[in-house]
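pipeline stage [seq->struct] | target=Long-chain-fatty-acid--AMP ligase FadD32 | organism=Sesamum angolense | residues=571
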Amino acid sequence: MNHENYDLCFPDQPVVDLYLPIWANLPAFRHKPAFVWAEDGPAHVSDSSALTYEQLNASVQSISSQLLLSLQRGDTVVILCAPGLELVEIMFACQRAGLLAVPVVPPHPSFASDNHHHLVRVLSQAKPKAALAARSYINRVREYVASSNNKLSDLLQMLRWIETEDVKGQMKVGDVQRNSSPYQGCKANDVYLIQYTSGATGIPKPVLVTAGAAAHNVRVARRAYDLHPNSVIVSWLPQYHDCGLMFLLLTIVSGATCVLTSPNAFINRPRLWLELITEYKATCTPVPSFTLPLVVRRGGVDKGTSSINLWSMKNLIIINEPIYKASVEEFVEVFRPYGLNPSTISPSYGLAENCTFVSTAWRSESNGNFPVHKSLLPSAKLPSSREEIMEEEIEILVVNEETHEPADDGVEGEIWISSPSNASGYLGHPTLTHEVFNARLRNKVAGCFVRTQDRGIVMGHERYLYITGRASDIIKQAGGQEIHPHYIETAAYKSGPRLIRAGCLAAFEFLGSVAIVAELQRGVETSLLMKICEGIRDGVLREEKIGVGAVVIVEWKCSKDYFWESAEMVG
């Protein structure tokens, strides 16, 4: 059956889970894979398992019923499942049971001193009634609790632990088809998810997301990327928050198929991503911007035994600013011979405070020739006049942070967003919630905006929006000059790409000047340290006309320790 340009025969649903039984009961979709899990096996041969729409719906109904035997609607549960199809089932089952889900990457159950800090934060803030995890994981947790006496062990001991093996497989497909009871899951206004911000530029914050906001967000994204039941998505992103989680929901709303693998599998062998696109003839894949240069350098397109063919791709969605034109052009040039069409490039913008998706510069008629501003590609194309209401119901403005008035095109300011996708706030942070989620334009009473704390600028008669960086990261120079650190970091990396690890640099203001911390590639001789420091200073001065003060070089194995303020400097 060809589903191209499929006209949905049912109205939009108020929550995502309500789409699932509709697809599952359509004859053409019952046996269609909703999710496929691909493992990178021996000899680089992928091993996969799948859930059809009918199987997923039956599993979700069964798990939700089992969960409500020991929990009540509205209870908070922390999900400590490994990435995979089970995590997908649990996430949708929590929505159908009316539970508030807090998905968390499960730390190693040894809970070594450097891997459990986020879990302590989550348990302290969310105060869940229960935790869902595999039996083997729970047994290790109990061993830890029995032999430890600290805050984490106290928090773990207070939880009701539910084994995923006990809540799965209790209902068959036929039982679901005979079940005519009314829907008791999350309503549109119910907070159904706490997703934590990435923490890339600060301590992760717990964002409260309603089921209705999430449904609106993925409906908008579906239209923006023109996804439909013939779409095939490949994703290695973490399934616990932001884009990785959104694409689970987006798959169901679109009636599509999503092929999943783990971030570790991708990092260990980036070529796997290309192989999955080829094998499943994927039409859509979301990746962070760092993926492109990483795959160019480590993808090994000419080293694997299987061929690479990217002709099926319609959307290569690039997230996480900054999105550099040079990186995109390099990737396209390398993979054009393998079928990659430049028109697939979809630079996009999103954040947890708006569920995830905000905008994309991609259009179905796009040819990939986007305008450029200071080496950056745009992440949105705004209406020709501010008075127009965007079709997607997401209003994006660039605002002067001091006056709270819209900035003129060509003037950088803070990005504000007003949308039904706006999250409800931060858990346990009422003052910050009011500041971020209830912003109002000067002299305008109606309409609340989310302050993204991202800076942007609108350029050109087509009004493309460029995400220039985080407001809190701006480095101020003498004479009022301002610069975003990623420009300095890029110039520093270009001074010695064979010596410095890509993406492992940090530029910031220190004692009135610019300081840079850079991580060495493996095996770099310490005799080169002085040359590396001089190269960084010269490169930044040449590229950005900015003098650099302190340059700190750390060995590659120290980068994690550096952020805990315990690294040993080697230069």
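stage status: PASS
auto-comment: Residues 475-563 form a domain with the GMP Synthetase; Chain A, domain 3 fold (CATH 3.30.300.30). DSSP finds 18 helices and 25 strands in the chain.
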